[in-house]
Each structure stands twice: as C-alpha cells, then as structure tokens.
Amino acid sequence: MSVLIMQRVVAIIPARSGSKGIPHKNIQEIAGKPLLAYTIEAALKSKYVNRVIVSTDSFEIAKIAKSYGAEVPFLRPSELAMDDTPMVAVIQHAVRYLETVEQYFVNIVVILQPTSPLRKTKYIDEAIEKLIKSNADSVIAVCEVKHHPFWLFILDGDKARPFIEEGLSITRRQELPKVYSVNGAVYVVRKDVLFKENSIIGKNTRAIVMPREESVDIDDYFDLFIAEMTIKYWKKWIEDKLNSMV
User: Fold this and answer.
1) Rounded to a whole number, what is the distance in angstroms from the first to the last CA of the chain?
2) Contact (Cβ atoms closer than 8 angstroms) between residue 204 and residue 189
3) Under a CB-based contact definition with an 8 Å cutoff, are residues 145 and 131 in contact?
4) Distance between CA atoms of 176 and 170, rounded to whole angstroms?
5) Contact 76, 57 (CB under 8 A)
C-alpha cells in the first residue's frame, strides 16, 4: 500500500511492573519465553510498523524488552504505572516523548498489549491496512463471544431473570445475532484522534475479527495456563488433524 509509505507507524507496548492478578505478569515465562516477548516479536515482523516501543516503569522489563529487539527510550513515570492509570494517558505520554524529545513525529499508533501472546503479525497488518483503506479514526480487534448476552441471566437472590428479555424468544443458537467483544489484542489509532478525542478508540471505528482461540487475554493464572497449552500443543494438534485426513 503506497499510501503507508508516507505514514510513520509506531507500535507501543504498555508493560508496567505491577499486576494484581499475577505478580510480574508481563515477564512471566510462558512456553520458554517471557510473555512480553511474543508481542515484541509479532510487532517486529509487521510490514508497516516503523518502530516498536515498550513503555514500562521497570528496569528489569526494559532489559528484557531490549533483548528481544524492542526500543525502550524512556522509563514511564510511576504516576503513569498505577492500577487505575488510563491506557490513553500511557500512550499519549509515549507519543509526546517521541515527538518532543526525539522530534520523531508519528501518524499512526498501534497499541499492543503483552497480555495477548497468541496475536499474530497478520492481524496487526490487517488492522493498519483497514485504518488506511477505510479512512477510519481507529481499528480494534474483536472476537465472537462464547456466551451470548441473549442467554445470560441476572440473579436477584436465587431468582434468575434474563439479562435481555428478547433473548427468551430464541431457543436455537443458529438464530442468535452474532455479537463480538473487544479482545484487547490490537488497537490502531490516528495520532490526531488520540489527542483530540483523548481516546484510543475514535468515533469512526472499524474492526478486524480474530478467532476466539487466538484471542486469549491473560488476566489470571488460568488464562496463562490456556495460553501456554495453546502455544505448546495447538500447532501439533493441527498437524495431527491434517495428517489424519490424508
């Protein structure tokens, strides 16, 4: 896409040291590598990303990030590494640093959370391409939900009532409208939108769809286990299935 040659695309990977669910989550070893490494490697393989920046408040994380090929041009201030720090503030800080300190001006920002280790490079590139082709403000990665909201219930004591009344009339899964959730794997946003709307998701947002099995977002130890088992055995399982069909 020739138009992308004119764009400066920076991938920012937010990787703070703190984590409530899993201590040192971003550098937990998973299938032989720190969790953070999977996202760095996927970003570095992108056709369009010019720089891969890790935003962290930790010297240890910075050292690991650099060893896998990412840049860590600054350490994030502690006030931007709290449990309640908004993601948009972290990304804006990184972009401001690049533009004010390095005079490196950015057009497109790609946000890649290290908690999505199964995200492939092709989804990063697909999201960037969609942003340009559609002239959107931003692009998000989504996956189809496993538990449809039409079939969810709210408990009032032990009394169950439907979350959505309309869902009671649908008894076959095939009749359910498809519903998607943001999986956190890829966000792409124009720099101007990031600052003018103070958000990583603009008003004109498009989506790319990722399979559920590649949309694991690690929040607790069970998610970590699922991701590791997938990395270790998914490829072999696919190969065995294909071989059995020959």
Assistant:
1) 38
2) no
3) no
4) 7
5) yes
- Strand 138-144 relative to strand 153-156, pairing: unpaired
Give the chain's largest Cα–Cα span: 60
Q: Report whether 192 contacts 154 (CB < 8 A).
A: no
Residue-wise pLDDT tens for the chain (246 aa)?
Answer: 555 556 899 999 999 987 777 888 999 999 899 999 999 999 999 999 999 999 999 999 999 999 999 999 999 998 888 888 899 999 999 999 999 999 999 999 999 999 999 999 999 999 999 999 999 999 999 998 888 777 778 898 888 887 887 767 766 777 677 889 999 999 999 999 999 999 999 999 999 999 988 998 998 899 889 899 888 887 666 566 556 655
The pTM assigned to this predicted structure is 0.88
How far apart (Å, rounded) are the C-alpha atoms in residues 206 and 188?
A: 10
- Exposure pattern of 22-43 as b/e (b: 16+ CB <10 Å)? beebbbbebeebbbbbbbbbbb
For residues 214 and 180, give the distance between their C-alpha atoms in angstroms, rounded to a whole number. 14
